[in-house]
Amino acid sequence: MSKQVDVAIIGAGTAGLNAFRQVKQVTSNVVLINDGPYGTTCARVGCMPSKVLIEVAKTFSRREHFDDFGIKGSENLTLDRKQVMQYMRGQRDWFVARVMDGVNQIGEKNIKGRARFVEPQVLEVNGERIQAEKIIIATGSRPIVPPEWHQFGDKVITTDDFFELDELPDSIAVIGLGAIGCELGQALARLGVKVVGVEMLSNVAGLSDPKVNKVAIEELAKSFDVWLETAAQLSETADGKIKVETNDGRSITVDKALASLGRRPNIDNMGLEVFNLDLSNGFKDLVNPHTMQLGDLPLFIAGDVGSLKPILHEVADEGTIAGYNAVQNPVQGFKRRVPLRIAFTDPQVVIVGASFAELAEQDIITGERSFVVQGRTKVMARNHGLLRVYADRQSGRLLGSEMMIPDGEYIGHFLAMAIENEMTVRDVMVTPFYHPTVLEGLDNALNAIAAQLEGGNQGPALKTMN
Amino acid sequence: MSKQVDVAIIGAGTAGLNAFRQVKQVTSNVVLINDGPYGTTCARVGCMPSKVLIEVAKTFSRREHFDDFGIKGSENLTLDRKQVMQYMRGQRDWFVARVMDGVNQIGEKNIKGRARFVEPQVLEVNGERIQAEKIIIATGSRPIVPPEWHQFGDKVITTDDFFELDELPDSIAVIGLGAIGCELGQALARLGVKVVGVEMLSNVAGLSDPKVNKVAIEELAKSFDVWLETAAQLSETADGKIKVETNDGRSITVDKALASLGRRPNIDNMGLEVFNLDLSNGFKDLVNPHTMQLGDLPLFIAGDVGSLKPILHEVADEGTIAGYNAVQNPVQGFKRRVPLRIAFTDPQVVIVGASFAELAEQDIITGERSFVVQGRTKVMARNHGLLRVYADRQSGRLLGSEMMIPDGEYIGHFLAMAIENEMTVRDVMVTPFYHPTVLEGLDNALNAIAAQLEGGNQGPALKTMN
Predict the structure, then answer these.
(1) What's B63's DSSP letter?
(2) E-strand spans in B30-127?
(3) Which residue, A85, B301, B417, B431, shows the most beta carbons closer than 10 Å to its own?
(4) Is A431 on the interface with B (CB under 8 A)?
């Protein structure tokens, strides 16, 4: 006889835990099934440990300015390459422990084991069958490693392994310069690791605006060698190191290679054949992003496994939506948030709303502001970067922005709220821009757009009163 | 025979320069009359030099964390107390030079000299008479120093003098803990100066929320002694130092006292008697803040001299409004920006929208978030502070916030835009909150409010689709 539940959730990561919390508001007849490590990708091997390393690297690299500032003795600062990793893990463990506090409260509804579909509404776990009205798949993803690199053992690592290293390596090749590759490449270089970054494409950190991309490459290249538009071939040297060779004839020998080539969904060996779906592209084109339902099946997909928006706040939303709809009839569609992507490089890369590439066909005005000569960033001795803001030429509505600027994360959120509320450039310009702030640079970019709109930007940038 | 102009502007600070730029769009028959130093209060002795010192202090104080991070040798870092002042002045001079580039472009329309009213529309400058259709007074303000302290000569200083000191003093008493006193007191203490701060009131940095004020006092007291609710009596010691004594019996002897007691408008010896106004409270209650006109006189008041909103972006607005209306008939009223005040302490004190005190009579819900245990601030090892957000109980509309949190300046701007657009707590909650960011703490505070609103905060914090 099989166990009967209203909802079975497969995967106790961020999406699964959010789904569980949501389902529990309606029914207690729910199980959360998890195979593999608890603690979420974010806390264990993602957002949190990387941000700790980035913070230490940013702090350590600040010593370049000490002498100018009148702070003496920076030449005697050194980095303990073991301790920095221990510190990072200590912080990480604290974050993981906080996740585990939540997991442990779930109690017996939390089943450890691998779930396998035997029918569309029947799972087998640890030899037991569970019949579920609705099933939520939230099994997450794992880093992509080309099969031909498996032979190099622990010389080729991913973010799953990196944070467990006893000490920082002497040298590393970062293969793939998306957000994670850029973040870790720059941080490691600043911590004294010899870094080379290799990327197939001509753009980094997902940027599509050529001007911002150019600035980003220049900024990253201040810390490490950036090799673009080339694949990397790896081989092992006689003394057990990794030789990286590019199509265009460059090569370097390093201790480790970090594969930061993206992630693939965990959909293998789950018995998904029972659904008779074409999963060659995963769930990506099959799931409704507003309901998280897969077609009209009693099946919901949430988080990285769906490959829709593998960013924590979106993954959390997907879990919540899936959990909400798993106990709702009919399902409810939700408007997803304004797109926001941040790479925690220094300066930070941010893409918000529509990207430059997405606006290729649209008649836009672009407002631009360099942060090389900008009051606040000069005060902070962080005067780098470029901001580009896109608005609709007819309506003046804000559409999106790409940037690599100090504290860009905040400018991204600020613009996201404006875009969500369909604000025009002039609507935003009436908000206060305090002096001296980075936001004044945004105001400059908005003014540059307003000058090209009908009516220009003469007179006070304030609302008139009757 | 007197010179005839359309507009005469008295004062070439931020307000006057903005007024000049605005007037010039309509008429070239305008003069800008200035007595005393050029370069703006902000760039010479205000925002800019103070922010540079604050940045150096923040950077130097960061060494407390180096050992934890694995950065070794911080015990050998020292501060060159002359060089830090030289560095600050070098930066300041750069900002002043940028202002002067603008001033120099004005050419012969820029008159150096003291303007004095001889009739409501006639000024005398350097013995010459100037008849003006409209006159804009933008003469700024100066720090308040009690007359009985003048006897102490250069032992009692203000922000007019401080940035010219050859080197940091060994010890200083900061008298008055408004925004400037808090900023400089904390920065100097972090730079190794022995600091005591004395304040008549029980609140610091203009805070009115007792909970936030308590946190702010605790944070400041980590760097220097904070003596509240007491006046300070000064006397000179035999060895030429300043003895500070309080009503409640505390005393300390210091090298310098910094009077940070606010600023008074520059309205003396200008012949303002011709207007027959009661100026016992300055222009404050006489000027229309939406037009900057004084009654129906051909007179406009802009910037610090008006004592309305002595904050740079507001002062700039006032100059622009005054300049716009000086050549406009009838005058146009402009809606002023959402109030935003920032003290660049660490963490930063921010008051945005309505303050707690201003909402005393209103039925509000308060959402609170401590930043002691918060993901991003913990990652940054800057986990301090408290955020309190106020919303209307009936409508859920955001009304204001007081906070002392890391990067509070950005949270302040974000909330200002939401308040300007009359957004509810739930409207803001649908914006993306990236992980891990300080803004997630704001989202928590908003959730705490939403939980108390009708309908609570069950289900996805997203807009539904039809």
Answers:
(1) G
(2) 30-34, 71-72, 78-79, 110-112, 115-119, 122-125
(3) B301
(4) yes
CA dist., res. B377 & res. B371, Å (int): 7
Domain residue ranges of chain B, discontinuous segments joined by +: 3-143+264-326, 147-261, 340-450
Q: What is the distance in angstroms between the Cα of B133 and the nearest Cα belonging to chain A?
A: 20
Tens of pLDDT, residues B23-37: 999 999 999 999 999
Q: Provide the number of CB pairs (under 8 Å) joining chain A to chain B.
A: 261
Residues A406-415: tens digit of each pLDDT: 999 999 999 9
Q: CATH topology for B3-143+264-326?
A: FAD/NAD(P)-binding domain (3.50.50)
Q: Give pLDDT, residue A466.
A: 75
**Structurally, what CATH architecture does the domain formed by B340-450 represent?**
2-Layer Sandwich (3.30)
Mean pLDDT over B400-408 rounds to 98
- Can you tell me the ipTM of this complex? 0.97
Q: Which residues contact A136 (CB under 8 A, 6 or more apart)?
A: A7, A8, A9, A10, A16, A19, A292, A299, A300, A301, A302, A319, A322, A323, A326
Give yes or no on whether A3-143+264-326 and A147-261 have one common fold: yes
- pLDDT over threshold 90, residue B233: yes
Both structure tokens of A79: 């980095």
Distance of alpha carbon A161 from alpha carbon A37, whole angstroms: 13
CATH superfamily of B147-261: FAD/NAD(P)-binding domain (3.50.50.60)
Alpha-carbon dihedral angle through residues B439, B443, B449, B454, given to the nearest 10 degrees:
150
Closest to A437 measured CA to CA, from B338, B12, B407, B177: B407
Chain A residues closer than 8 Å to B417 by CB: 414, 417-418, 428, 431
Closest chain A residue to B464, measured at CA: A334
The residue among B69, B291, B337 with the most chain A CBs within 10 A of its CB, best to mutate, is B69
Residue type, A120: P
> What SS3 state is found at A181?
helix
What beta strand segments (E) does A104-153 contain? 110-112, 115-119, 122-125, 128-137, 141-143
Task: In whole angstroms, give the CA distance from residue B92 to residue B347.
Answer: 24
Q: pLDDT at residue B1 above 70?
A: no
* All residues at 6 or more sequence positions from B227 whose CB lies less than 8 Å from its CB, including other chains: B196, B197, B198, B199, B246, B250
Nearest CA to A87 among B70, B377, B71, B63?
B70
